[in-house]
Amino acid sequence: MASSTTTTAEHILREMGGPENITSLTHCATRLRFQVADQSIIDTDKLDSDPAVLGVVKQGSTGMQVIMGGGVAEYYSALNKLPGMGDNKKASNEGSNKKEYGGVRGKFAGVDYAFEFLSDTFRPVLWALLGASLIITLLVLADTFKLQDFHQDLVDQPAEFQLAHAMWRSVFYFLPIMVGATAAKKLGANEWVGAAIPAALFTPEFLGMKEIAEEVPTAVEGQYNYVVHIFNIPMYIQDYGGQVFPPIFAAIILYFLEKGLKKIIPSAVHMVFVPFICLLIMIPLTALVVGPFGVGLGNAIAHFLGWINGISPFILSVVIPLLYPFLVPLGLHWPLNAIMIVNINTLGFDYIQGPMGAWNFACFGVITGVVVVSWREHNKQMRQLSFGASMAGLLGGISEPSLYGVLLRYRRSYYRLLPGCFLGGVVMGIFNIKAYAFVFTSLLTIPAMDPIAGYVIGIAVAFFTSFLLVVFLDYRTPEERDEMRAQIAAEREAANEAEDQRVAAAGAAGAAGGAGTALAADEVAGEPVQVGSPLAGAVVPLADTPDEAFAAGAVGKGVSVDPTGDTVYAPAAGKVMAAFPTGHAIGLKLDDGVQLLIHIGIDTVNMEGDGFTLHVKKGERVENGTPLVSFDRAKIEAAGYSPITPVLVTNHKKLADVTPLLSGGTVEVGEPLIEATPKIKVAQQ
481 lies in which domain range? Predict the structure, then answer.
């Protein structure tokens, strides 16, 4: 039985000496590139025994290349999911102080990075947020069916419900600590120092200072600020549970502080003095400035909304749902909860929750639209994410999974969200919706609003406006959509190709002397197809290519070109199947069925894109003569690498024959370089 991707990954990891022997792992167009602690313990014969492994090449004294063909990204992903590999991958990047950006750049790169920063800050804790939000949903259901009052004081609730509240509060209350870690890691600072900074504000020692603090009345009746003085500087002792604005800004400051310290402190003592000085500076700075600033900003917004309501409840109903999409990502919406509770206790009703429902249901409309789009595209990962977030929202009134999982990740989704917020808010304003209980705005808490009919119309308008905009106009930019669709198609094709290669290899192993391209009983050779040269230069036989794997034909069959020009062109019409950001290699699937890999230079992946300009992106349609990549031969040679460029047919095992048309001399762009003969199925008599 053919091996699965995971089984092959486990085999590779085992024969490489286990995760403890691997110091780093990357991949290029066709190969897994390992750096190992001890190369001598690797049994290359056993490693090569899996049919999915197309070849093994040692590189230097610590490097090992395992050739996997077009499905290399699948195996790379599977390897990193195995126990111990996540830590190794992180270790290779630790301490680099390098901010990472993996999204599609738009016109405003800073805005793109800000959205990705917020998204990647919350994405690692999304599972915990989803789990906690569904626990809240169960508690709200219990409240709806009068089994237990959700808002009853915890000390008066049965022990079972107290434990259940602890289960969801463990995530939302301590969210600042998690956010501190993930934000720091995203920026390139140490994640554990990023977590320790907000964690200091949750310690009994910090919160215990309330006992010696001065009580200062706030603008909200019955609420006080607690102030102590540190070296004559006032410090506010307050509850930071659920506040994400302070840890995010603390992580940003930490990144620059840590980066600066590493420049002036000798590397030999980084581990001792860098975290020490960072904590020494950042914890007081966060307690004295960053934290109070974040909470104060939220309180100011709450009072501003109260002022607007005094002028015109209708205007407030429109403003609230338009503000919430920008308040929630930074945690600035939490102070509004106190205003809602005070309103209900003093006025008997609240004027914020009703309009807030327009924001929530516009958000749930977006995420439900994503469910439909993902189902249409057969995008399993996004479908699972969006469905869970949709259920958490519609049944539990929890917007965070939708926000952090989709809205902040794909900035175009805000263009679908805000129209729903606006129109839903207008309806809420027309009916002057009021809430008579503090609830999470979901389908199950509609009876808390008055008038119910007006509220239902308002949330329906918000939901279906955003839902339909997503379904018909998508939630991504065209670049993000094309990249995701191409990735889905490439992964599916890579999986099929890997399976075909395993089956072919297994069949070849069972037939003595059988060739990988042998014709089956029901196959004949078709009409040969000529593939033009994608670049100009001197023709070099593949066997003379200065790389073992290429020379042996383990990656594919074809020929190499020592370039005289500076641009690679599409040799025929087709589709870009792989376009590495480094620009060193590009994969095409031509309309005639030939899959082509053009690898510019040898080991040029190590140049990290310096000297290469990529003109196309993955999934893009190209025509004969379309420029694909420009490169600087002088830079390649100055970096110590050979510019010789293999031009390979990677699906040669599915063809009857692949033959170079030239073995020497020179070739111009578009001149015939390789001849590929397809296999054709024939009907059995």
Answer: 312-503
